[in-house]
Amino acid sequence: MNTNKLFVLTLTLLISVATFAQKGSVTKADSYLVKSDYANAKAEIDVAITIEKNATKSKTWFVRGKIYQAIATSADEAVTAIDSDALSKAIAAYNKVLEMEKENSPNHLIATTNLDAIWGNFINNGGTLYGEEKYGEALQNFEKALIVKPSDSVTLLYAGVAAQLSEKSDKTLTYYYKMLDLNVASSDVVSTLIYIERAEKKNDEKALELVRKAKELFPEDTKFGQEEISLLLKMEKVEEAKTKLEAAIAEDPTNVNLHLNLGVLYDNLASVKLDEGKKEEARTNYAKAKESYLKAIEIDPSSYIANFNTGVIYVNMAKEYYDEVRDMNLKDYDKYGPAKLAKADKILKEGLPYMEKATSIEPDDLSGLKALQQMYTQLKMMDKAEAILDRVDALEAGQ
Prior knowledge:
single chain; TPR repeat; mainly alpha; Tetratricopeptide repeat-containing protein; TPR_rpt
């Protein structure tokens, strides 16, 4: 027998059988789906869309969407393995239905509902995995949800958070920058972008750009002004920071936030000078910071930040002398210690009214309470220190 003829005959027979098996029947594909025979349903619908008369009908695409939706969202790995691109194919098919059908038609409405169901499936799966602290797997589900709704702010936020907790900061940047572009980023989202650019990417210029954008978007949030000053100081752009703030104050002299920001600038600059051992320059800058904070208090006596920061200024000024005493040997202490301590105590007492005022404005703020407790302790006002400490303990215990 001629083996070549036998091979050709066998191959022809196989092709004929395969063609017979999948004729591209949309009805048959739907029937396979009902029976959960996803492999045959997929094979049938894949042939169906290659037939022109089928490809022009929305029903074909609707059935294709259902089949690939079932594959993409199945909890059975054997089913999802049928087609790794099932999710994209389901979405494309349903979008085709939306293009072909009138808005209020049954298929249009069901396709829309099914797209929402696909999105919801991956959002819920992601949420469950997130709750189990499986952040990488949660991220994978949120990213699948984004294929359905690429501009959904909730999904972008979830994906960004999961990416951050998965230590995939590049993805966090991608999703949070998209939120910023869509004008749906909260101040916390922008703060995270700033942190990643500054702390992880070491890109101070980009961080500064983001800070200035944040100041436009969230003018009431003073932390961005403070962050700008901090960045400018780090980038050794002190004069630029001072010039910008002083010009702004000249135009708007009753703006509390501007005075606060100028105070923070001098405050930070004083700390830098102190670290460099330039005590006189540090004192000068602390004095300028105090002047700015007091101006803010004059405009708004109920400003917590202005009162708190003024109190801290006095703490920092007193600390210089306390540190000197701490570093003295016994001989120097006997000679200079008491006078230095008296001077430090006097400065610290001057700051007490401001910190006390701050804690009266925000009585549950732990930062203010702890600072006040330390001031009382340093001044040996033990009854008051213990009362504040009890308050701190109660707040930290959730009482």
